[in-house]
């Protein structure tokens, strides 16, 4: 057997050993270790995801009670350029407001923990690092803006589904187990592709999916919070 083959086999054996160790660690992870993973960020996560859930629920109720008024307004952008610009400006305003709110909540959490903001973000909110998070939002906003400027607003609902899937796969915003997040992310992306190919224009699918995922995520955080409270008693 050549030295190259021995090196390859040794590398494979090392990878298998690392996987076994990680699997055993995950299986024997105690509730205290799980809660320590979140630490003081648990409340901040609940607040942030609660806000996201509230906004998506409100939009979903408006869409349902108005029988598709949001979708109808969105589709008007195909015929009226002024509405496209208003829509882009509205989306930009919402994104700016959400970013300001996000960092305000994180700043308050860092202040309450007595930690410097940058160190707190790096340690507890890796998905919220300034450059990566803002560049991710900027790319998503650019994609939506280009679609609207091209006069194809019917592509926006599938894009929103794909964005939700992307957040799940990247582990941003939502706090779910890795396997569940990847599975739900793949399903969201597949659903977005199906909506695009089937030419389904309604905003209901992305709103329903986002609201459901946010409910699952915040429900898990609330359970962890209760376990943390019980453990501290």
Distance between the termini: 61 Å
Q: Care to count the β-strands?
A: 0
The protein's oligomeric status is: single chain
Main sheet? Answer: none
Listing every helix as H and every strand as E from the N terminus to the C terminus, the arrangement reads HHHHHHHHHH
Compute the average pLDDT: 77
Question: Total number of helical segments?
Answer: 10
Low-pLDDT segments, ≥5 res: 25-40
Overall helicity:
over 70%
User: What overall form do the CA principal axes indicate?
Assistant: globular
Gyration radius, rounded: 21 Å
How many domains?
1
Structural class: mainly alpha
- Percent strand equals under 5%
Question: Could you walk me through the main structural features you see in this protein, from its secondary elements to its overall organization?
Answer:
The protein has one domain. It has 10 helices and no strands. Helix 5 packs antiparallel against helix 7 and helix 8 runs parallel beside helix 10. The radius of gyration is 21 Å and the shape is globular. 23% of the residues are buried. About 7% of the residues have low confidence.
């Amino acid at each position: 057997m050549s030295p190259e083959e021995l090196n390859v086999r040794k590398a494979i054996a090392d990878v298998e050993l690392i996987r076994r160790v990680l699997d055993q660690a995950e299986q024997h992870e105690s509730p205290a270790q799980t809660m320590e993973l979140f630490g003081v960020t648990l409340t901040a996560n609940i607040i942030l995801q609660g806000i996201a859930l509230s906004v998506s629920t409100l939009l979903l109720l408006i869409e349902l009670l108005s029988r598709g008024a949001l979708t109808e307004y969105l589709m008007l952008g195909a015929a009226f350029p002024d509405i496209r610009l208003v829509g882009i400006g509205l989306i930009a305003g919402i994104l700016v407001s959400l970013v300001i709110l996000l960092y305000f909540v994180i700043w308050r959490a860092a202040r309450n923990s007595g930690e410097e903001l940058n160190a707190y973000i790096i340690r507890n909110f890796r998905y919220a690092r300034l450059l990566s998070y803002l560049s991710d939002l900027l790319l998503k906003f650019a994609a939506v803006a280009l679609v609207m400027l091209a006069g194809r607003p019917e592509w926006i609902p599938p894009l929103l589904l794909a964005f939700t899937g992307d957040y799940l796969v990247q582990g941003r915003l939502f706090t779910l187990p890795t396997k569940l997040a990847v599975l739900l992310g793949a399903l969201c992306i597949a659903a977005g592709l199906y909506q695009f190919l089937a030419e389904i224009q309604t905003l209901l699918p992305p709103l329903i999916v986002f609201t459901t995922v946010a409910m699952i995520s915040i429900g898990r955080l609330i359970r962890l919070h209760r376990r943390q409270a019980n453990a501290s008693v």
